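One thing: could you explain this record?
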Amino acid sequence: MKSYRKMTYPYVVWISIMIVLPMFLIMFYAFTKTGNSVVQFKFTFENFIRFFSDTIFLEVLGRSLRVAIITTVICVLLGYPAAYYIAKCSEGLKMKWVLIITFPTWINMLVRTYAWIGILQDDGVINKLLGLIGIGPVTMMYTEFAVILGMVYNFIPFMILQIYTSLTKMDYSLIEAAQDLGADRLRCFTKVTLPLSLPGVISGITLVFLPAVSSFCIPKLLGGGQYVLVGNVIESQFLTSGDWNFGSAISLIMAIIIMISLYVTKKLDKSEIQERSAT
């Protein structure tokens, strides 16, 4: 038993240095204010009061939540049919489709997002195709549409894979039983398939919403600095303004929002499991 405990020591040290210590520093800076001297700090809630009393920052927070929710909804609406189709394919086709979906994630997100600049700009691929039929050019860059499109493209594989995994683990004998009892395809889907796949949907929502609400790379590139989200504000506070205290406060606020989201999704997942066990 002691040998197993010794094997965990490197992981404990790694977690302490890479996770616990940075979180402690964020909390320390969030609740302090730098004095006249570099080494002087004062405990204060001023950073949080500044954030919630400024309508500009609240608008940015609301915009970030709205964009994350829209991105998540689109990923569910597009990802579920794709995952359902893949789950119905033969074993050989399943592996091919999973490879196609995961292949873009092998490329760095920054590179993938840069590629969309060449596609969406005024003289890009889409506008050239629209020009062939006498439409355009349509301004797509530096808009909310471009930001949401970039987020959906980057995060939808996580949604598809989670739902696909949930569908493949489903007991298909339950569908056969429902069909034997006279249920049509629509009723089988709404009463059997959809409820059994909800854990995968909830996991996918978590994996899409959390990075979308705190993203800064995609809105910076596709929004061109004109479409600012919370992630961009945090980045500017650390790298441009040099106000680590205020940046840490915003980071802590986002961490609390993310933890609340995780708690809600966990409760929904537990309630779904309890309903299934009750039936």
Notes: The chain has twelve helices and two strands.
